[in-house]
Amino acid sequence: MTRADPALADRPARPGPPRRPQWLLRRVLWPLRNLWRSLTSMRTALVLLFLLALAAIPGALLPQRELNEQKTLKYIADHGTLGAWMDKLQLFDVFSSAWFTAIYVLLFVSLVGCLTPRLIEHAKSLRAKPVAAPRNLSRLPRHLTTTVDGDPEEIAERISTNLRGWRRTIVVGNDAATGKVVEVSAEKGYLREFGNLVFHFALLALLVSIALGKLYGYEGTRSLVADGEGLCNTSTAVYDSFRAGAMVDGTDLTHFCFKVDAFSATFLPNGQPDMYNATMSYTKGAATSAEDWHQTSVRVNDPLRVAGDRVYVLGNGFAPTFTVTFPNGEKRTQTALFIPDELQTMLSSGAVRFDTPAGLYPDEDVRRKNQIAIEGLFAPTADYQGTLLSSSSPVPNDPQVAIRIYKGDTGLDTGLPQNAYSLDQSLINQGRLQRQAQVNLAKGASTTLADGTVVSFDGYQRWVSVQVSHDPAQDWVLASAVAMLIGLLVSLLVRRRRIWVRLVPADPDRTGTDDGKRRTVVEIGGLARTDQAGWGEGFDEQAAGLVEPGGRSATRMSRWRTL
């Protein structure tokens, strides 16, 4: 019977380590741990990668607001309630939507969480010794037993020499039944896991590079007449539309200038475009002399690269030139961009507005009532369907226009933004713009209004829509993509293999030979970690070559190393 010590009973109990409340473990810590383990598993990363590819499909099939806002608004209007709901779901802003960003961030976190432990584990395996030989080598998928003349340690050194290029180790031990035992363990194919890690870390770097490119990049578009019109990349105000990353405020743009000198287009017999070619002049920084300008050609998928930016040609069309001769003899000439309505024939529509000459109408109200507006169609090759003008070819063989001429208030003085390619229909409905004539004009033809104003069609110019793209991470995106390809090839071509050799002195009574020579029983086992068959055909012949001298087994071992 054990008695309690009174002295110990009076001593106060020592406080134990602080314990977390059970509810905190069950309700908070354990669910968070399980959630983190699920998120950082490779299966979750693959699912998120698939979801990212799936989420990008609407961005390829539907018009995107950041690329063409007018086309996007028209699509929404044409589809009514469905279009409005699609807009609420951010299907027209896919790559900046909340749900696409969430998938993107979750994929990034998942890759970091699952790759970091694998990298640590791979680093440990590179420092570790090869795995010791299993007790029963005959159970391995590939196995060979043979008897060789010589001492076990001598044969082990020979096998180690033949296994150059493998990580190998020799262990000498004793066995109660057979006496001395020498084991050789060798491994090969660590580059497979290294290539796998390179592929996944390159994928991670690709995601980071794309994200940084979006944060610090920008894109600006501008339509330019191909008659020497150009721009300098000094301000966002020089562009028709400008999309900037979250870290770009537009005050530190790369400084360069370019202008479109000429544009040519070739078409197939069926009217489909064959090739576009824009001749551009460009200069880095401020041009102080003609020698600072350089000329180049910009084609499809062949942009102008200047100062780290790229200048693309996105679209093209025709810009007819009109001259209005007012009753006092003064002239106003404008070249207006017309937008193609039919890409196959380049039948285009547009509008142009003319203000009256200064001093012709001193009264402001009278001046606003005598402005001229033109709206109509341009056909590169005129083809009439009765009296309706159409186009039979995108090649400008017979350029003509069908226009409506209006007189009145064009809205130039309101200060409100207007569509540059069409007139404000509300001004026509209110009677502030009144139609004066509707005519078809060939190149060089003109028409005269009732008050003596003459409107003439002088010809046309080609215009191009250019995009200036700045992506500071584009080189990193390319390097990441190349690294992904290299890592994938390495992981597919390199095989992870292990081989074990056990050498024990032969018993003369069992072998039936007692000629005084020392013999060794060699047991070889092979295991491949990546496929069931493992070594392919000819394993026995290749394994037998391990115990032969290097001179006699060169052919066999060369085959061994290539597998």
TrEMBL record:
<dbReference type="Pfam" id="PF05140">
    <property type="entry name" value="ResB"/>
</dbReference>
<keyword id="KW-0472">Membrane</keyword>
<keyword id="KW-1133">Transmembrane helix</keyword>
<dbReference type="GO" id="GO:0016020">
    <property type="term" value="C:membrane"/>
</dbReference>
<feature type="domain" description="ResB-like">
    <location>
        <begin position="42"/>
        <end position="540"/>
    </location>
</feature>
<dbReference type="InterPro" id="IPR023494">
    <property type="entry name" value="Cyt_c_bgen_Ccs1/CcsB/ResB"/>
</dbReference>
<feature type="transmembrane region" description="Helical">
    <location>
        <begin position="197"/>
        <end position="216"/>
    </location>
</feature>
<dbReference type="GO" id="GO:0017004">
    <property type="term" value="P:cytochrome complex assembly"/>
</dbReference>
<feature type="transmembrane region" description="Helical">
    <location>
        <begin position="476"/>
        <end position="494"/>
    </location>
</feature>
<dbReference type="InterPro" id="IPR007816">
    <property type="entry name" value="ResB-like_domain"/>
</dbReference>
<keyword id="KW-0812">Transmembrane</keyword>
<keyword id="KW-0201">Cytochrome c-type biogenesis</keyword>
<feature type="transmembrane region" description="Helical">
    <location>
        <begin position="98"/>
        <end position="120"/>
    </location>
</feature>
<protein>
    <submittedName>
        <fullName>Cytochrome c biogenesis protein ResB</fullName>
    </submittedName>
</protein>
